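Quick one:
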Amino acid sequence: MSAAKSYSVAKPGSPATRKFRGPLGSAMFSDQTWEEIARSFKLSGRELQVIKDIFDDLTESAIAAHLGVSPHTVHTYCERLYQKLVVTGRVKLVLRIVDEFLALTAASGNVPPFICSNQAAGRRPPQRS
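Output:
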């Protein structure tokens, strides 16, 4: 599975449709960032791997195959992660992890990485409000 995917920023068929390539899924965070997130939530190594696979949009069956466990075991991991992170589903889990990343970044005083790949590459000046 490729870490860089193509995605549109406008409705299909509209003249403003542009394709960007950038890291999506678990590749959006560095290994160090994942370690900080795991430490912050007190996640086990297996729980962290399940979360990374959820970020990569794998189904419970695909996660089970990847980890070499039964789908029921993965379902149990997911349910426990939802309780641990106080969320009700996969989307809220992802949003909770991103929220924690932003909180950790703000606490450390580091500037979060640019979301716009053109801006990060220096091809577009920052927009001022």
